[in-house]
């Protein structure tokens, strides 16, 4: 099975959320100590100061257990600064219990149900002539591409997120930190 087939098979499967300059000192510290293989995506995100808004959203959406499950998952994790770029009041509105389903849809749009490193994703983009569709847990597709040496993720609305920290390996998948919140 070639790499494209493997990725297409991986993206056709299903599951949550949603990479090189933003520092994750706490997360990096745990990785340096060899704890990464023991920690789930959620456990690591909780320890990263720049992912606190994402963690709050995961909790409000009731997705902690899912993202703590066996996976594997590839999570495109928006930073706090990415959430701050949304229109004023958007995050607060999404965190309300009555908007739980909408929040779940947004977060699961940031998750691909497989484990894909940045090098594997870049290879798939190159193999596909510059753009590679990936089905998310939410059910819609995101498009992976390259701008220079940067891995980019484009949502259904044409918004692009840049991977600013790649390949943070966890016990149940991999996290790529992004600079923009993706919207289905």
Automatic annotation (TrEMBL):
Gene3D superfamilies linked to this entry: FAS1 domain
Pfam families: Fasciclin
Record's keyword terms, sorted: Signal
Signal peptide range: 1-28
FAS1 domain location: 38-182
GO CC terms: extracellular space
Keyword Zinc-finger part of the UniProt annotation: no
Keyword S-adenosyl-L-methionine on entry: no
Superkingdom, taxonomy of origin: Bacteria
Stored PANTHER family: FI19380P1, PERIOSTIN-RELATED
Protein name: Uncaracterized surface protein containing fasciclin (FAS1) repeats
Organism expressing this protein natively: Marinobacter antarcticus
